[in-house]
Amino acid sequence: EVNWLPWILLLGVSDLYGISAEIKFTTPVGRLFTYEVMREKFQNDFETSSKLYTGVLHDDPMVFKCKKQGFPDLPEWLRFIQRHPFDNGFLYGTPMSPGKYFIEIYAINKISYDAARELLVIKVIPEKLLPYQAEFFIQLREVEKVLPSSVQIEIKQDLQKLWNNEALEMINISNALDRGGRVPLPLAGHYEGVYVKVGSKKYFSKCLQRVMSPEYQRECATEAKVKIPGECTFCKIPSNCITWCKTELVRRPASQRFHHHCLEMTCVFIQLYHHQTIHGNTEELRSMASQRGVPAPLSTLPMFNSRTGERASPLQSDSIPLIMAQQEPYSDTLPR
Ligand SMILES: *[C@@H]1O[C@H](CO)[C@@H](O)[C@H](O)[C@H]1NC(C)=O
């Protein structure tokens, strides 16, 4: 199930950097976005712009620089990796708020030093966050080996079995470096390891619920190598196997969850509870403000006149019209 809708806008505009194409994507908040930066495509751009190598297929080394248009870097949710000048690059990450992002990709040919540019327009649309999420660690992988969609699908298929749930969505893929960890030297047989986070509207399977059990905690705290229980082992390809003891379950707080997940009476209860919590917090802030030995900031008072500082008594507030601006043009009686 692919949940972003890519489409390519054919817009060949010549500029300083050779051919510049604009590519548009729409992707929902809270879901993994990936884009493979293809060397082959830029190779074509270089050949059309220089017209030097007609008739011969070239495979030049190239490096990429990706950044938000008008800024030195990428937006903080978006990361880029290209391991080697003969590899494709990947842009990947999880946007957490809606908006439109203009991402420039510059390619530099390491033989001719030709440069080409591509513009990615990523439109992030609102979407509800998934209430149940689980993060897995795959030890024998590098992030760029997991980002191609074919590999993402393989991994998701194993996790669908472990979760006993078809409706899983990719939320995040990151490597140890993305998480501020230390990474082994590039030695044969040593991998950085990859974290994969998926989410669903459906609750965790029996297999995943074991992660919350005291036995899991105890075993994983004491034993060096804990095997995933037999009936919960689903990896078809050894390099996709998860490290059982590094599994983490996340349940989003009820305030973000009750939309999908409770029956009417329970929802009312949760909403009331939240209302009370917010009310309580406000009270607390007001009393803290009043105890500082300085006049309380006007903004913490129920209603005030910003010019005179005069307060309306809370008892009267029911009878005060919300807008009084007609009588006093420069007064502000709206609660802040
Ligand atoms: C995805 O992973 C990166 C790296 O660990 C982290 O900084 C980011 O907050 C994560 N985003 C989500 C939505 O989990």
TrEMBL record:
Where in this chain does the record put each Sarcoglycan alpha/epsilon N-terminal domain? 27-122
Query: Superkingdom, according to UniProt?
Result: Eukaryota
Report the leader peptide range.
Answer: 1-21
Tell me the ranges covered by the Sarcoglycan alpha/epsilon second domain, including all copies: 130-250
Which keywords fit this entry according to its UniProt record?
A: Membrane, Signal
Q: Which stretches are transmembrane?
A: none
Subcellular localization, as worded in the UniProt entry: Membrane
Q: Which GO terms describe its molecular function?
A: calcium ion binding
Q: What does UniProt give as GO cellular component?
A: sarcoglycan complex
Q: Where in this chain does the entry annotate a coiled-coil region?
A: none
Specify where it is mainly localized: membrane
Pfam families, sorted? Sarcoglycan_2, Sarcoglycan_2_C
- Name used for this protein in its record: Sarcoglycan, alpha
Q: Which organism is it from?
A: Cyprinodon variegatus (Sheepshead minnow)
